Write a sequence for this structure.
């Protein structure tokens, strides 16, 4: 209800999209380990790897962006509610016995 910060929403989206895109990159056979070298243009990333990252960024951005949009629409229409953060409920008062009489010793 009070979190309508668009940069926070963009950060949540990118926190899932970017690692997902990087984890789905297949290393080509021409890469050499220790130190990692895969060829031009960057040495660390080859052209084929950069194209894979771009493809996965686009797929993940569209997929997760659509789900984020749907979730925000569901919040706006009242179909689902956000969890309320903040303080916990106060503790319940101690229960007193209804009548005096026999009590267990524990």
């Amino acid at each position: 209800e009070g979190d309508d910060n668009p940069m926070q929403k963009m950060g949540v989206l990118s926190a899932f999209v970017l690692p997902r895109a990087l984890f789905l990159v297949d290393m080509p056979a021409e890469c050499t380990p220790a130190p990692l070298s895969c060829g031009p243009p960057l040495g660390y990333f080859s052209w084929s790897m950069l194209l894979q990252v771009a493809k996965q960024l686009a797929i993940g951005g569209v997929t997760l962006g659509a789900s984020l949009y749907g979730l925000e629409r569901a919040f706006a229409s009242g179909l689902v509610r956000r969890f309320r953060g903040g303080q916990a409920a106060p503790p319940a008062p101690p229960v007193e016995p209804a009548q005096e009489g026999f009590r267990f010793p524990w």
In short: Residues 25 and 76 are 36 Å apart (CA to CA). The radius of gyration is 27 Å. The chain has a mean pLDDT of 80.
